[in-house]
Records
---
Amino acid sequence: MKQYLRLLPAVHELQKDPRFESLKSACDVNSAQLTEFLQRELGNLRQRLLAEETAVEGTVPDFAGQLFKSAETQIKLWQEDRLARVINGTGTVLHTNLGRSRLSDAAIAHAVRTAANYSNLEYRLMEGKRGSRHDIIEELLVEATGAEAAMVVNNNAAAVFLILSALAKQREVIVSRGQLVEIGGSFRVSSIMEESGAQLVEVGTTNKTHLFDYEDAVNEETAMIMKVHTSNFKMIGFTEAVETEVLARLTEKHRDLLFYEDLGSGALYDFKKHGIGDEPLVREVIESGVDLVSFSGDKLLGGPQAGLIAGKKDLIDQLKKHQLARVLRVDKMTLAALEETLKSYSSGPERVAELPTVRDIIRSASDIKIQAQSFINLLQENPNKYQIEIQESTSQIGGGTMPGVEIPTFIAAIVHDSLSADQLAMRLRQAKPAIVSRIQEEKVCIDFRTIADSEMDELLAGFLASESQV
């Protein structure tokens, strides 16, 4: 192969080739970009020839043509969206790897309007003076939670960090050992506390923490009792924890001792009335006597990624003035989407049920079965090698939310005549848009709890395209 190295065209020769201008126009790139791709592909081809890892056709191979073809392929891959749309066929509503909550149409529209125009992000229109972005959603959050005041940062981990840094730095914070959870990406509550400057005081045991454990740990250096809601795991058996109301009464006995509860997910809608989980409402936690509570915007709330903090006004005011508040602030599009999401909660149960997250969690199994049957009918109208049937199954909430809760659902269980389940699942992930499924008992399964009606045609097209590749 090495004898062909001298036949490789120089970059300046490729630039003079008519195919250079043609490819530049077809791929909508400039000369510098195309030259860079050609140089890269030329280097790759040279390495393959040296390693004798490529086939050479003809006595005088058309290396230039090969380079233009491979450069075109790489340009098209480069131009594809890195953050690509996905059809979620897993049935996991708050799928962390797939972006968690889908926003409502109203939230999307408001975010787009805000992105496309100037806005009063930090400007008071009536006074013609500088304003604060905290004002945009505080009233709505107060209304939804019943708190005295509220604010927003970029996620709940940031909310925890801000609260501990601003209110407990270099002082002690008491936490039950059973609540020192690890959240996504190996981030731990204990590590966040350490970074904040707060001094962690562990009490109780992994499975049992009593009121006297907290009482014995309180001293002059104690700034806060922190309760971490175990929203991403469930401990059963010989366990005991101190209820929020009891801890609130304990902190009331000690002047300047704060009580903060990290809810993690945080629900403004009562899923319990549908028999789904036992997540407390944020309003209920506030009414129990906590000083501060924090929770996520993109989990059970059904909005954009954000960390929401609600509680006593004097404490919220301190947090707003802290230097970290600027570091952790959210942008205008997040505020716009969050504003519309919170307005849905203010507009009654019907509007709340229109939020995709809430809608998907409370969907009835019978409605899902009808949708699954509709897909099967569509697929069977086209010649293919699929064997498909409807099966009863369960969906998960996901996102570290409501651990152990499984919701009855129906899935389409699919087998291909000549593809394994893994092979078919891979081809579906390569569809446009990508289709993510789950595999059970060597069958590709689509849970329609997380499939929107508007996605049905694309889902069908993905399966038919995967079939045509065989």
---
Amino acid sequence: MRPGDIAVAVAGLILCVYAVLALWQGGTPDAAVIRAGGRVVAEVDLSRARRVEVPGPLGVTLVEIEPGRARIASDPGPRQYCVRQGWLTQAGAVAICAPNEVSLSLTGRSANYDTLNY
């Protein structure tokens, strides 16, 4: 390898790191969209704290909203994956409680890139 090859490789690595840091970060969320059975149940602003109870086939899923973030606080599903996901803080973040057919997603001006919206 020549010095020019090393310089090109380092420049490419720096460009990749910059792209990840600058372009793949989700923005600040504005609202939370709560769905049950594929239908929008509620669209709530993230400016004040509240709790939303969402009925599903297995029981009631509790969604907790605080300023700038939201989470699934409890769910009757067997594995609790959506509860373990914790607080969602970036636009484009999603928590899905598949057995109870309930989902929570955060919306904003700039969404986080992932395989679903890429």
---
Amino acid sequence: MTLNDAKGRLLRSGRRKTAIIGFAAATESLRNIASDLLTQPHPYKYVLTYKFSQDHIELLFNKIRRRGGWNNNPNILQFKWALSRVLMRNNISPPSNGNCTEFVNLCSKSAEKRSQQFQPPPD
């Protein structure tokens, strides 16, 4: 907040103060988050600041908009279609060691269970 320009004026009080104030707020927030993560009872060894970026979600929404012909306000069907196309194109699937299961496998497993449950008893 004490950054000056070449003439000695504070940047936070100039015409383009929004960027300076936003940068200062983001830096202060990140510093507080890192302090909390690094000093908790089971502290982390490091903090990956890139993971705090909005770039990932912005890139996803940009792809979805592009799929819909740059439609900034898609309805639910357009969004669903565009998201499924993006996921299929990038071949995104759940990890094998994650805490989620693939929906297709889940459906086939539950169908197997249902068919096994309703088998007539052997004669």
